[in-house]
Amino acid sequence: MSPERTDMKLKFAMLVTALLALPMAASAQGQNCATRDLVVERLTSKYGESRQSIGMAPQGRVVEVFASHETGTWTITITMPNGITCLVASGQSFETLDEDVAPAGIRS
Q: What radius of gyration do the chain's Cα atoms show?
């Protein structure tokens, strides 16, 4: 994997981590949550999604992006240290990008 692609993935993971640090993640625990095995099974069987990326968030939480290249659906989940996984966001038109990172000081 190229250094540029690694840097882009790192920036994406940092963005997702920042978003998940918001209170929204804490309030989501009461809704759209289940054991990780059940959530992954549902994403796989119902939507054909598989894990595309993974990262660590504050307080031992794990962030994962699932997507289907066939249907274009995607889901972002967060798994708490106790094994409960919550849906954070989902949508359509997922694409894997391989964009070059602009050199520092140049606007894209």
A: 15
pTM of the model: 0.68
Three-state SS for 59?
helix
Domain ranges of the chain: 3-91
Q: Parallel, antiparallel, or unpaired: how do β-strands 33-35 and 50-57 relate?
A: unpaired
Which residues in the chain land under pLDDT 50? 21-29
| pLDDT value for 28 | 47
Asked if residues 52 and 67 have their Cβ atoms less than 8 Å apart, the reply is yes
Helices marked H in 21-105 — which ranges?
Answer: 23-28, 36-47
Q: Are 88 and 25 in contact (CB under 8 A)?
A: yes
pLDDT at 85: 96
Q: How far apart are CA 42 and CA 66, in angstroms?
A: 11
